[in-house]
Amino acid sequence: MSLFAKPSTYDERSARLAGIGLMLLSIFMFSFGDALGKFMVATYSVGQLLWLRACAALLVLLPIIWRQRAEFTRLERPWLQLLRVTLSTLEVAAFFIATVYLPLADVITYYLAAPIFVTALSGLVLGERVGWRRWSAILIGFVGVLIALRPSAQTVSWPAMIALGGSFSFALLMLITRSLRATPDIVLTTTQFGGTFLLGAVMSPVGWVTPTLGSLGMFAAAGVISVCALLCINRSLKLAPASVVVPYQYSMIVWAVIFGFVVWGDVPSPATIVGAAIIIGAGLYIFLREQKLGREETVVNPPA
Known about the structure:
The protein is mostly helical. It has 12 helices and no strands.
């Protein structure tokens, strides 16, 4: 069965497992794109990154947008759609602004607080049931993040507050995306890039640096990677509850270690290795728990 088949074709267990797989894939692509973005904002402004990245993404999406243009004329809950785009735009801008002033690992630390926000709010906002076992695994995973990344003394700085605000926006974005699961993936993805395109167009004239041909290629790559990652994460949130798939963001620490070593020669400390092991263990527990729940559940009620 294709991962991108209609959600209604899945039974609940298959839908949750497919959602987890797509979340893991999206986190890998986001991690690669984050490292690329951090590299680019050392030379170019955040506005340029947002604008050129969005330009590339929208060009890639254009054939699909044209083919499914009728979907854009019947949006469910337009005001909630607008709130989602606003949160998405603020979250992306906050992330890259924070990376200008803070190490990438520190920024990711704040963003990995998003599963805590999602789990705390999913029961109230979405009516999802979160048991104590999953709560325990999520909290243990976050302890692993703290052990691995050891947030610096800059935790009370304005860039850190910007990153933490971006993390909270990201958590709300996840919850709203889950509640808008009847909206086609192409609409969700296009509107997100439309938001960053507009913000980038406003910001980019300030401190504009004419990009080289090679840099344009990297901006284009960042856009394509972002498209693929967003398509995966949006579909993941349609297939499975937010409180199930969002904790797999913890796998970002694994990619942070890999990219740090390959690109910058950073050797992970013993604390990083121990923390990563705890995070992976917590993620595996949640995965196995979902498998067990899937085998035991007899009522099939997959997402729409």
